[in-house]
Every structure is written in C-alpha cells, then in structure tokens.
Amino acid sequence: MTQDSREKRLDSVLNMNRRSFMKTAAAGAATTAVAGMVELKTAKEAKAFAYEPYPRDDQLTTVVTSCAHNCGSRHMLVAHKQGDVIVRLSTDDGRFQKNGAFGKDTDEEPQLRACLRGRSYRSRLYSPERLLYPMMRVGERGEGKFKRVSWDEALNFVASKMLAIKQQYGPQALLDQSYAGASYGVLHKSDQIEGLLGRFLGMFGCRTNSWSVPSYQGTTTSSRWTYGTIEDGNEDDAFAHSKLIIMWGWNPAYTFHGGNTFYYMRKAKQNGCKFVVIDPQYTDSASAYDAWWIPINPNTDAAMMAGMAHYIFDNNLHDQEFIDKFTQGMDEGTMPEWAKNSPNGTENFKDYILGKYDGTPKTPEWAAEVCGVSAEDIKKLAHMYATTKPAALKASWAPGRNAYGEQYNRMAAALQAMTGNIGILGGCAEGVGKGWHAEAVAYPYDQYANVWYASIKSDRWAHIVLNYPNVSREEAGLWPRNDQLDGVVPNIRGIFWQGSDWFNQLTNINKEIQAIKKLDLVVCMDSTITPSGLFADVLLPVATHFERHDAALPWYKGHYYIHRPKVIEPLGESRTDMQIFTELAYRIGDLNPQGYGMFGKTYNPKANRDYWINPDPVDESYLSDWWHNKVMHHQHVDMSWEEFKQRGVYKFTFDKPHVAFREQIENGKPFQTASGKIEILSSELAKISDWKRTRYGYHVPSIPKWIEPWEWLNSPKTKDFPYHMISPHPRWRTHSIFHNIPWLRETYEQEITINAADARKLDIKNGDIVEAWNDRGKVVMPAYVTERCMPGVVVLHEGAWLDVDENGVDRSGNPDFLTLDEPSPAGAFAYNTVLCNIKKSDLTHRPGWDKLATARSHVFRRDL
Ligand SMILES: Nc1nc2c(c(=O)[nH]1)N[C@H]1C(S)=C(S)[C@@H](COP(=O)(O)OP(=O)(O)OC[C@H]3O[C@@H](n4cnc5c(=O)[nH]c(N)nc54)[C@H](O)[C@@H]3O)O[C@H]1N2
Ligand SMILES: Nc1nc2c(c(=O)[nH]1)N[C@H]1C(S)=C(S)[C@@H](COP(=O)(O)OP(=O)(O)OC[C@H]3O[C@@H](n4cnc5c(=O)[nH]c(N)nc54)[C@H](O)[C@@H]3O)O[C@H]1N2
Ligand code: SF4
Ligand SMILES: [Mo]
Asked: Residue 816: CB within 6 Å of ligand 1?
C-alpha cells in the first residue's frame, strides 16, 4: 500500500463516526464540567438513560464482570443491561462459581462482594467528567483549556513529537509515569514494570523509568532484604486462627488490603482473639474489634518496636530455637563468618538493641521518649506479643511511607522472627503481604517488558527537571546500569500518564507545577478528565474495563480470577490503551519507516492495523492463550476458557489456608535470600561500601535501626509547624478515583481531622473552614474535631482533586501540596513525614469541580 493510500484509509478509519456517539446523553451533555473549560458538541438524544426508568430484571440482560483499580481488593460486579446501557449493578451472590447456588458463601469460597465504591461504579462510567474524545491544549499548560480534535490529529502530534524529542535529547528524554490504575488486569495493564506504556516507550527506545512505588517502597525493599520476596503474605482466612492481631498502622475498615479481611477477622474475634491498634487515630477498625488503642507519634514506630525487642530479649521471651535455625544476624550466634570483614555488616541486631554499639540500650523507657507511648504500655504489648501464640503482627505500609520507612518494616520482621510467628497458621510475616501467586500477565508482556535507559526515584522527577543538569546521581536515585548510561541523570523533556493521576498524587505539587512548565510534551491517557489531565497537552480517551475484554486479578490477596468481558461498547470515541499504543507504534513507523517500520507489529504481534477498528478477536486470542498456557497448565485448573467465560469467576480452593513460608519452616526449604535465612542482617547491605553507586544513594544500616526522621514532633521545626500531618487512604475513594461520584460524596467531606484540645486552643469548631500550611504549600478544607485523633497530629486523606487558586493555594484540601519530595534512601515516599501549622481561614474550600457531587457529612455532625 502506498503511503498516500494508507493515509487515506486511516483518515477515513480514524475519523469515522462509528457509533452515533451517545447512547449516553448523561455523559455527552455534561462534559462541560471541568470548571466550564471543556466545551463539546451537544450529544444526540439518548435511547436509554443511564439512571432511569428503573426496568424490571426480566427486561435486562446480566453480565458478570469485576470492579477495578488500585483499591485494595477485587470484587465481582454484575452488570444489568438494557440494550447497550448498564442500568444497574449488583455483586456476587454465590451462583456464578463452579457448583455455585444462589447465596453460596462459605469459608473456603466466600463471596466477592463489592464495597460502596464498586456499587457506585455506574455513576463513574457515565460521569460528566468522563473523557469521550481526544482533546488538545489551547491555553497555557495547566490552564485547563482544551479543544476537541480528531484521533488523527492527536496521534500524529504525539508520534511526531516523540520522534523529535528522542532525536534531539536521546533515549532518556521521555518519562514513564504509568501507575496502577489498571494494573490488576491481565491484558490491559498500567504498571511500572509490566505495563503497556513501559513496553511501548522501552521498545521505542526512549524511556526513563520511575522505579520507586508510592504504595510501599520501604516495605518492598524490607521484604526483599529480609525474605528475598514480597510474597510474604498469608491469605485472609489465616487471620481466623490468630489469638492476637496487632493492627500496626493498619485500618482495614477504611483501607482495604484484600477482599474478605473483615470476614475472617470477625471469625477470629468470635474465637476469642484480642486486638490491638497502633495508630495516631482511633480508627473504625479499632472500634469494630474493640481493640486496645495505642496512639503513637507518627514516624516513630521503629523506636517503639525496638523498645519491644529490648523487653523481649531482656526477659528471655524470644524463641531462640527459631532464631538459631532460621535467621541471620539476629544475635551474635547467627552472624555469618564473612560479616566480620564486611564494610557495613559487623553489627548484630540484639547487641544494637542492648546498646552495645552506641551506648544507648533501646529500653522501653528510651522508646517512650521518642514515640510518646508509655514504657508500661510498650512492655505490656511486648509481653502480650511474645507470650500469645500464634500472634499476627500485621505491620501495614503507612508507617513505612515515611523518612527511613524501610527501618520500620525491617524492625517488624525482626519482632515477627524473634517470636517465631513466621510460617505458622495464625502468625504473620507480612511486610508487603502478597498472598497466593496469580498468573499476572498475558502474552505479549513476557517479551520486551521493562526496558529503560534511566530509572529514577519516582518522586524526584520535578527536582530533576528543575535542577538539570546540576543533579547528582544519588539525588535522582538512579538505578545502576552496566553500560555507558550508568549514572547519567536524564534530561526529561516529556511525560506520559497512563493509569495514573500522579500529578495529583505524588509529593510537593507546587514543585511539580513549576517543573511541568519546562517540558515539551505531556500526554495523559485516561477515561476521566483528571487533575493531572489539566496539565497535559494531549488527552487521549480510554475505554474502561467495562468496554474491553480482559480478566481481573485479585489485589495482593485472594485466590480467584474474574472474567471481564466487554460489557458495553466504548463510550464516545474512546479506545483501549492497547489500541492506542498499537496505532501510535504504527504511526511512528509511518513517519520513520527505516527506524520503526516493524514497531507496530512487534508491539502487538497478534494484531494487524485493523486492530484500531476491531480489537476483539486479537484480545480474545491473547486471553485464551493466557488461560490455556498459564492458568490451566501451570496452575492445574481444569475449567476450560469457555466455561470460565460463561461463569465469570474461578475460585481456587485450598486444602489448608495459604501461609507464607510454611514450606521453609516445616520442611526446611531455604528462604529466597542470599543466605537462605531470614536476613535480619542483610547480606546485600552488609557488602556495600560505595553508596553513591547504589540506587539508595545514601548509607543504610545492615540491620534494622531507629533513625530520626527529617521532620517529626520532636524536631526543632515544630516551633513554626507544630502539627504532624498524616495522609491515609480514603474509604470513599480509590486515591483520586471516585472523587467525583455524587452518591459517594453524600457520605463524606474532604476534611482535616484535628484533636479536640488542639482545636480549642486554635478556636476551631467542627465544620469551620481552616487552612493548613508549611513551607511547601497551603490547603483549605473544613475541620473535623474529635478525640479520636491524638493531640499534635492532623489527618487529611490523600486523593482530593487539586484546585489551585491564583495565589497557589489548593482549595480542595489535597495533602500533597504539603508533602516532601525527598524520598528515603531505600525509596520510600515520605508522604507521612510532614509538619504543618493550621488556623481558621476566610478562604473558601472548593469540594470539587464536579457540579453534581455535594458533600453532606457535616449535616450529621453539626451538633458534635
Ligand atoms: N499524601 C499522600 N499521597 C499519596 C498517598 C498517601 O498515602 N499520602 N498514597 C500514594 C499511593 S500508595 C498511591 S498507590 C498513589 C496512587 O496514585 P495514582 O495511581 O495516580 O492514583 P489513582 O487516583 O488511582 O489514579 C489512577 C488513574 O488511572 C486511571 N485509570 C484507571 N483505569 C485505567 C485504564 O484502564 N487505562 C488508563 N489509561 N487509565 C486508567 C484512573 O481514571 C485514574 O485517573 O497515590 C499516592 N499518593
Ligand atoms: N478504601 C481504600 N482502600 C485502599 C486504597 C484506597 O485508596 N482506598 N488504596 C490501596 C493502596 S494503593 C494502598 S498502597 C494501601 C495502603 O494501605 P495502608 O498503608 O495500610 O493505608 P493508609 O490508609 O495509608 O494508613 C493506614 C493507617 O496508618 C496510620 N498511620 C499513618 N502514619 C502512621 C505512622 O507513622 N505510624 C502508625 N503507627 N500509623 C500511621 C493511619 O492513621 C491509618 O489509619 O491501601 C489500599 N486500599
Ligand atoms: S474494594 Fe475495590 S474492587 Fe472491591 S468493590 Fe470496592 S473499589 Fe471495587
Ligand atoms: Mo498504593
């Protein structure tokens, strides 16, 4: 085909009005809602309306699918359709699985019942903020002014810009900021490591990767150092067997970590299990389990744990047999020979705790000064933990999302090991806590995944852009390479967002706002007009998981697969991510046939160019291959792909609960570490002498230690900024997703939680509008005054949609205007290492750009 005729064909293909766009008047008509900035043509009248009338079940067809995103779990959604419109969503009622019957719900095969977010998904699908057409920026970057363009124009613009940037600036100029918005699908994946964007930019030959994960880089690094794997999690049903559950910085009532956690924890409670919560807030989990609440100064968990370890050693309550058999470096007797001559590995953990090296025994009294918990309580908890068997110390990720967060998780692992609670039913070794191993990717990801030319600590991008070329490799957190690009700090000229709202979710947004101005290309691929999208040059509308074919994976816990058929046709002109990357690859090949002639075919080997028109047969083929070759072959599932598609779910049943490291403890299988042991002394760290050449950049002790954070309640900075702000995850949102959902918004307000005594000092009453600020930024929101939060600490949930005024003040109450963009050496984001001040404000809070959502929780709290 000549270039000319191909262009013509594509022209007609790409600009074809394939569907009378909009069976969804709701979506079309209201896309003006981004502060009135986006103007679209009026949509055709709808044949069915997404919200009413309310049809009877026998008038509807039923399709099983799953909910989505990086939300802490993965549940079934059942779509009830009229024509091509979803009019109702329900959830698992037992009947879809093998041998299922209506209502089936057993311990072995519990229902995968959706939470309120999932059940509201219909209003996300048809939301006014839904991105329906490609758009290009017309105003200044960040001004939020866009015009609708054809796919042709948008894709050609991106393809030619990519080529120009790569040619001028080399293979590191484009930054991959894909994240987990769609990481729990098998085929349509957004992810830093296995995602579609990484594969696309890597194959194109121009990619800077973002290696540290916001969720749990401290925890991940700790789990890998200690156990050699992040699969250190039990399945949820194991909780039912615990006699003591310590929820350390863990609030599963809000922040999901698996689908049926609460169900099994309730069973534990019924069996007489005791519960403890260590958290600056008295959480709903604390109240649900009538737990002993131990409020703790944020960022001081490693110190409190060290105090517990001291008590346990001092009273000889540790499990010496377990220590001798399974650990390295817990005490002098478990130190390896080689460590004596290592640059960083001569110390053992017990002697550190007893104060042999620094003259400071880490007694409960010492710890009390640091963490604000009384020595009595530290001793009492240590005693409970060491003498109750089995006991689950579930050390969640938030206390690791801190300066030196990795030390907290390592310290927790030391406690888990010294009490012999690893590899046994009812105990807990988590860490990251990934449970059963899912077959996570469909071909073609197995090939060319994760090729990069520079890889930075993810929240350093703005710092690098603003200071280039005066940035050192350790400041950037560069991952080492074995070639001439080792240590070369990238000159970042463009950013891609796919499955990520990172501009809204990373740290120190004011710095990001400065940095983004300097770039040559910003591309946002999303199904929603997001706060990040407002800072893009090009918005590419992406079909949601209801509008494409895939299979869903559990989120860290759970052992099942859920089928995701294409439930409805893609809304507007949206295309799947896979279609967009495939077509972009072909276009780059058109523009530069010598260099990239095969790009499209290599990127998506099963597809031809007509994939843009109809992706279904190719997607089906990838997925059925995945099911046959991986699920059936590797995991010995005997259900056929056809049957799976017909039922919608496959739940594995195990003959006993899945417990991490059971094999190691029961049968002596080596751990996946260098020594084959649980490494309290990390072999890797012990051998490092030149820190600058590592991805850490700075010294990390080879054993768990308490290290003072940069800012916290005991630092001099409290003179100006006396409150420690933590920013946990919201119950009503998945990060920023669902912020614009009116049904959910009725249940909450983006508010800052403050202790009643602090509020009185500041003359702040419940519902008053307040501002919180530090030297990085200022945010405005209502106050929630309560005694459920300890004095000196304020709580502001992450994920509000940023809304900056002309003075740079964020009126939405997004905590990332106050967070610090300096990660911990091991890469942990320091989201919870924040001091600020707070006062009553005359400024107005703006709860969202969405016109429909209204927060009403204050109505119910008025008389508090
Ligand atoms: N202050 C503070 N900030 C935090 C945190 C904190 O604790 N405190 N937590 C951090 C953590 S742990 C995380 S994980 C991050 C989350 O940061 P993000 O991953 O940026 O947050 P999400 O809001 O989940 O954004 C995901 C985006 O992906 C889009 N998306 C979903 N599915 C698809 C798809 O199939 N294709 C495409 N192209 N897009 C899709 C969604 O519409 C959404 O806009 O936030 C971090 N931010
Ligand atoms: N509903 C909902 N569930 C989610 C998500 C969501 O956005 N919404 N996101 C998912 C994702 S991507 C992730 S990474 C996980 C995150 O899971 P987690 O990290 O467990 O969750 P967080 O909500 O950040 O924090 C949990 C608790 O830690 C407390 N905390 C904060 N700082 C400290 C501290 O320094 N010390 C102590 N002891 N406690 C502290 C908070 O008050 C909070 O109650 O959640 C997942 N689940
Ligand atoms: S927990 Fe997650 S997957 Fe489950 S229904 Fe809620 S938002 Fe959806
Ligand atoms: Mo996360």
From this structure: yes
